[in-house]
C-alpha cells in the first residue's frame, strides 16, 4: 500500500516499556506512533541497546526528563513500510536509529551534516513532538522516523552487536575523526572501559593506533588486552603506573560517567595532545580545569556530542568493513529493570542489548 494512502489511517498502535517517574522503574506501556509520512520509514524493532545516558534520563539526573519515558536510542530494526519519497530503504532492509530523529535542516550545522549540533535537534525520546506529545524511544516494538535520521545497517554485522554503534560507536568515532586521532601509530588513551570505551578501543585498533586503557577496575585488564587488543592498561589510582606513562599520549578519549580529576589525564598527554570529554557525569556541576597542566605542553581539552547522520553512516560502513561490533549481554525485556540496576553498578560487559523482537510481548 502506498504511504500516501496509509497516511489517512489512524496512527500506529505501539507498545513498549516506560518509566512514569524518576524512580526510573520500567513497566509495560501502550501508546501510538504517528502514521508513516512520505519521507518516513516504519521499523519493526529487533534490538535496542541500553546506554548510560538512558540510566540518567530514566532517573532524571539532568532535570530534563519527560514522563512517561520510553528510553532507547541504539535501535536496529527491519523496515516494514516506506513513504513515497523514501529513497534509502526498501521494505525488508535493516535500518539503525541513534540519538536523534530530527533537526531544522536549514542552519549551518545541518548544512554541514552536523545535525547533532543543530539548536533544534530532536532527541530520539523524551522531547515534545510538534503536536505536543512526548516522543518515545526504542524500548518498544515499532518506530516511525524520517529516513534522513536512519542509517543503512551493514549486512555482515549482527543486529545485537551493531545496535550500540548507533550511539556508543558514533560518539567515539566522531571526535576521533574530528580531532585527528586516527593516524596509524598514534598513541590513544581510552578512559573508562564501558559501552563507549570498549568500542573506542576497537575503532582505534582498526585505525592502526597504539591504545592504552585507563581504568578504575584492575579486573578489566585481561579482557582489555586479550579480548579487545589494547596494547597496555593503566589503573588510574595507581600513581606509579600513571607516573610511568606521563607525556606519552597523542590523545585521550574520556568516557567516564562520574566526576573525576582531569589533571592526571592531561599529564599523560604529549605536547599538543588532546583530551576529549564524552562522559556526562553531572552537567550542572562545574568541572575543575587545571589550567597549568594545559599550559605546559600547549594541550587541548574539548568535548564532543554524538556525530551527524553522514558521519554515522560512514561509521557504520567502517564498522562493517572492519567487522567491529559491541560486546553485548543480550537480555529480555522482562529483565530490563535488573539490567538498569546492574548498569548503575558498572556490572555489565560491556553493553546490555534488549532482544525486543523476541521478548516484548503484550501478554
Ligand atoms: P558505561 O558503560 O557505564 O561506562 C562508563 C565507564 O566509566 C565505566 O565502565 C567505568 O570504567 C567508568 N566509571 C564509572 N564510574 C566511575 C567512577 N566513579 N570513577 C571513575 N570511572 C568510573 O557508560 P557509557 O554508556 O559508556 O557512557 C559513558 C558516559 O558517556 C555516560 O556519562 C554517558 O551519559 C555519556 N555519553 C555521552 C554521549 C555524548 O554525546 N557525549 C553519548 C553517549 C553517552 P572503568 O571501570 O574502566 O573505570
Descriptive labels:
26% strand; disordered N terminus; seven-stranded mixed β-sheet; single chain; alpha/beta; binds NADP nicotinamide-adenine-dinucleotide phosphate; 363 residues; globular
User: What small molecules does this complex bind?
Assistant: NADP nicotinamide-adenine-dinucleotide phosphate
- Overall radius of gyration: 20 Å
CA(first)-CA(last) distance: 29 Å
* Number of alpha- plus pi-helical segments: 13
Mean pLDDT: 95
Strand tally? 17
Task: Please specify the SSE layout and strand pairing.
Layout: H1 3-7, E1 12-19, E2 26-33, E3 40-50, H2 52-58, E4 75-82, E5 94-97, E6 100-102, H3 108-111, E7 122-123, E8 142-146, E9 151-152, H4 159-162, H5 168-178, E10 187-191, H6 195-206, E11 210-215, H7 221-227, E12 232-235, H8 239-244, E13 249-254, H9 263-266, E14 269-277, H10 291-295, E15 300-303, H11 309-322, E16 328-331, H12 336-344, E17 351-355, H13 356-359
Parallel strand pairs: 10-11, 10-13, 11-12, 13-14, 14-15, 16-17
Antiparallel strand pairs: 1-2, 3-4, 3-8, 3-17, 4-5, 5-9, 6-7
Helix pairs in contact: 5-6, 5-11
The structure holds NADP nicotinamide-adenine-dinucleotide phosphate.
Amino acid at each position: 500500500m502506498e504511504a500516501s494512502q496509509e497516511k489517512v489511517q489512524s496512527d500506529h498502535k505501539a507498545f513498549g516499556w516506560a518509566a512514569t517517574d524518576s524512580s526510573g522503574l520500567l513497566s509495560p506501556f501502550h501508546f501510538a506512533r504517528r502514521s508513516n509520512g512520505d519521507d518516513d520509514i516504519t521499523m519493526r524493532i529487533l534490538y535496542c541497546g541500553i546506554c548510560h545516558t538512558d540510566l540518567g534520563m530514566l532517573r532524571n539526573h539532568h532535570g530534563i526528563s519527560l514522563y512517561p519515558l520510553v528510553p532507547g536510542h541504539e535501535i536496529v530494526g527491519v523496515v516494514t513500510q516506506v513513504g513515497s519519497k523514501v529513497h534509502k530503504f526498501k521494505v525488508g532492509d535493516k535500518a539503525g536509529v541513534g540519538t536523534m530523529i530530527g533537526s531544522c535542516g536549514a542552519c549551518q550545522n545541518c548544512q554541514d551534516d552536523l545535525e547533532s549540533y543543530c539548536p533544534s535537534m530532536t532527541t530520539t525520546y523524551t522531547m515534545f513532538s510538534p503536536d505536543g506529545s512526548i516522543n518515545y524511544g526504542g524500548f518498544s516494538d515499532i518506530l516511525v522516523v524520517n529516513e534522513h535520521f536512519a542509517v543503512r545497517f551493514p549486512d555482515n554485522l549482527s543486529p545485537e552487536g551493531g545496535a550500540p554503534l548507533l550511539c556508543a560507536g558514533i560518539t567515539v568515532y566522531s571526535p576521533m575523526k574530528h580531532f585527528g586521532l586516527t593516524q596509524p601509530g598514534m598513541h590513544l588513551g581510552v578512559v573508562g572501559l564501558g559501552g563507549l570505551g570498549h568500542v573506542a578501543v576497537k575503532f582505534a585498533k582498526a585505525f592502526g593506533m597504539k591504545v592504552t586503557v585507563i581504568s578504575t577496575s584492575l579486573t578489566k585488564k585481561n579482557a582489555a588486552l586479550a579480548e579487545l587488543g589494547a596494547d597496555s592498561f593503566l589503573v588510574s589510582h595507581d600513581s606509579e603506573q600513571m607516573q610511568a606513562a606521563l607525556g606519552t599520549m597523542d590523545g585521550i578519549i574520556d568516557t567516564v560517567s562520574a566526576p573525576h580529576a582531569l589533571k592526571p589525564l592531561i599529564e599523560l598527554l604529549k605536547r599538543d595532545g588532546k583530551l576529549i570529554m564524552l562522559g556526562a557525569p553531572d552537567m550542572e556541576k562545574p568541572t575543575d580545569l587545571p589550567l597549568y597542566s594545559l599550559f605546559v605542553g600547549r594541550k587541548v581539552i574539548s568535548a564532543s556530542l554524538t556525530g551527524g547522520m553522514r558521519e554515522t553512516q560512514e561509521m557504520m560502513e567502517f564498522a562493517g568493513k572492519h567487522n567491529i561490533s559491541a560486546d553485548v549481554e543480550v537480555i529480555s525485556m522482562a529483565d530490563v529493570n535488573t539490567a538498569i540496576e546492574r548498569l548503575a553498578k558498572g556490572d555489565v560487559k560491556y553493553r546490555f542489548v534488549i532482544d525486543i523482537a523476541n521478548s516484548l510481548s503484550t501478554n
